[in-house]
Amino acid sequence: MPDISVVVIVYNDAERLPTAVQSVLDQSLRNVDVVIVDDCSTDGSFRVAQELEEAHPGRVRAFQLPENSGAGGEPRNLGIQQATGRYIMFLDSDDVLEHNACRNMLEAADETGSDMVSGLCVRLHKDTRNDRRTEWYPWLYSTTRTVSSITELPDLLVWDTLSTNKCYRRDFLIDNDLRFPKGMFYEDLMFIAEAYLAAESITLIPNQVYFWHVYERAANKSVTNSRHDMTNFVHRLEIHRRIDALLAERGMTDLKLAKDVKFLKHDLVLHLRDLPFRDNAYRSEFAELSREYMATLSPEAFDKVDPIQAICAYLLQQGDWERLIPAVDTLTHRAKISSPLAERDGRIYWCAEHLDDEQGRAVLDVTSLGYHETPLHRMFLRNQLSDFAVTDHTVRMAGDIVNPLGVIPAGAELKGELLFSARRRSLQSFTFPVRALRHDGESVHWEAEADLTDRLRPLGIVDVVWDVRLHLDVDGERTTTRITVGDTDLSPRNLPVRPRLTRMVADHLRPHVSAKGHLAFQLITEGHAGQRMQEFIDRGVRGKPGALAKTGYRQAKSLRATLTSGETKLRVYHEVFSRLPIKKRTVVFESHLGRQYSDSPRAIYEEMRRQGLKFEAIWSYQGNPKDFPKDVTLVRRWSLPYLKALAQAEFWVDNQGFPLKLVKRPETTYIQTWHGSALKRMGFDLAEFKAMTRAQQQFQQDALDRFDRFLIRSEHDVRTLAKAFRLQEKTLLRVGYPRNDSLVRTRRQELAEGRRKPSPLAAELGIPEDKTVLLYAPTFRKAGGRSSRFELPFDVERFAEEFGDRYVLLVRAHYLNHVVLPPTVRGRVINVSAHHDVTPIMELADALITDYSSVMFDYALLDRPMLFFAYDYEEYAHASRGTYFDLRENAPGPVFTTEEELYAAVKSLDTQALDYASAREQFVARFGEYDQGNAAKSIVDQFFAEWSR
């Protein structure tokens, strides 16, 4: 008896069938056999199957259905019937098994006794040059585990609905009468759902077991690549209904909800993305089918998906095509804003319609996405083509750019240009002016003409596809859009063109719609001679000359990637730039990894300028450098100019750490100002550092040993930071933090004059003089997934309602996080996270609310009230990184954990200035003893004084 029988199903795939079968015969587990089931093919597939049976007697058996079943279910059912192995696996004729798949599956099954074993499936995109790989929900297969019920791991039923990456005990299939639905697409979904629910134990292994070959350009599309076929969608919905009934019978409401969420996130989205390319008849039928099924979904599912997914599903239910098609544009391009949006009662909604419906109001609320806080230059706006015509050599176009929340003012000066650029990077581009721009309220209308025949001169062959963008300048601020074609007809005629490589390679430009719905043009050949030349070129491209040319191009592309890779940059830094002479009186400054012009590096730089020293200042930046000084040299972090500047600088000054792999030259002095005293554990005091290998620890230590001077603001820093970084005593510079000089001077001035000096920042932020200013500045929080979004731990709208008549709350998120505030709190709660330097914000604030942020040590120098909202203290102090001291026992202000306690503390703020005066004094003495207001001057005098000559 074979250990495993692998059922291979085939239909009209004679060419690839032998490869699939061979992947089974070549398994490292030898005791396997193959059951080939042909679904009544018409191309000779069964003859190939019989030949394989003859070539491998006893190991391969071939069967054929009497008539075509139209799907994969019936062939697999026959395979189950004919299989004789202890276990059964399924394989499609265009896929292959991983070499050790059967052995790994069998060992796991025998060891655990599970009814099913499932392994990792890998999709190989065979149309790509290097068979691009995507793993199928790899988080499910990060480790070996066994579950006794699918309820222990609902994600398995919801997401891994394949039947082919699994091994089933044959008796389990027979005893539970598990069979695939007949004559239906998506037969896997129903079969695997029944198997999951019937299994008494399921084992998952982290091994790759199945290679799913994806042929997107195939003439005969697979089910997954032919979603536009309405039968495809009908079958998908029917399978979902059957699974829903199965779950309902067992009372598995939690699993049903998880599956509803997956339908909105995945199944429906797959088909929605096709809607802009389909006609009205298709859309109507699709909507009717969808609405009937979506009526059975739990309303709670809409709350658990991305906002745009819920919005599209809701608009589909409402039959609102005018707003659904633009919303699908955003579904496809997540950064794009495709609706004018609407503000109602301090909330932002996707549209002004459907807000009288309770569900509509909830689903369409997009306040949390922060559109209302996004500047125009960072917006990707939908630009809908409304008119397209070709006359002689010219294309005439018109369109409408959405104007969300009136971000483009009615009286703004508008300028625009069309940009035609070759899709391949580094090739040429051409611009044409937009001749008419008109503000139409919720949109901006534009009209343009482009003489493509006379002005656009492609090379030919290498620049076949040309993309079109529209640059819109609004009072000098630019936003760039792509042109969405939608239902606009592009068929009038093609434009003649003159490629630089003669018209023998191409003679016309044809407008077409890109895969994602944007306007593009393609070089084509219409003339007979050109068509012959194109055939010649195609043969050459497919032949040896083309192979050589492609190889050369790929080598050049690979060389370019290599030259710009991190590894190459490191070699250039160490082997080239580090051999150049040191440039005297050159300082490279960096703050928070180049994200800001702030902190102690800024204070030192400004003191050097104040003293009139003669030196070259170089600042590193990431992102937009607009807030950096104009009288310095700016270098983008990790660029070659950045590396060259570091290699030749006489001084490095930063507050966090230059790239770890850069070796500092002995002639360079590195002043590490650091960015705050430590509450949370750091460096080698962290468990993850202690768990590193000896080599990893040495790498970290080598990076820390680059510090020539490390600034200290208290002996607490010596006991914590210096110890955690294993710094020598000679490295420590007990002068305080230059960034805090301003705070110390501000406090001294207040004591001397007996009053607070008005802050210019208050006027800039529009804060009335009679309002008390509170600053909420929490520490870094790790968000889920790729998001850096920080959710406020209290109801900011309630806060504004209760305290807005007296207080203004400033919110300063950690620079690695971002926060979104609703419009309802406008004027009462202000997001100041974009301000580079926190010092002026602290000077403005009458009191601080924080948690574990090192801002507490700096703000204490102002001797103003501090509140500590430590809502997750136990997790942070014990389960997370740990702390050097108990904040609850040492904080110079009340420590609390609930929102109600926060409100109570704010209400009693007037009494806290006196109640905690002694505690604040002791706190400063312990954590800020060297902050005397002259740190920047002390450092400049010690290291740079001679540069005044």
Structural class: alpha/beta
| Sheet of most strands | 10 strands, mixed
So what's the overall shape?
Answer: globular
Q: Quick one: how many beta strands?
A: 37
Helix content: 25-40%
Distance between the termini: 93 Å
* Proportion of residues in extended strands: 15-25%
Radius of gyration: 33 Å
How many distinct helices? 34
Q: Can you put this structure into words, describing what you see?
A:
With about 950 residues, this protein is α/β, with parallel strands linked by helices. The protein contains 34 helices and 37 strands. Strands 1, 2, 3, 4, 5, 6, 7, 8, 9 and 10 form a ten-stranded mixed sheet that branches. Strand 18 (about 430-440) and strand 19 form a beta hairpin. The longest helix is centred in the first third of the chain and has 20 residues, at about 230-250. The radius of gyration is 33 Å and the shape is globular. The model is unreliable at about 220-225 (pLDDT under 50).
Q: What keywords describe this structure?
A:
949 residues, alpha/beta, ten-stranded mixed sheet, seven-stranded mixed β-barrel, 34 helices, 37 strands, globular
What's a quick, concise take on this entry?
The chain is of the alpha/beta class. It is built from 34 helices and 37 strands.
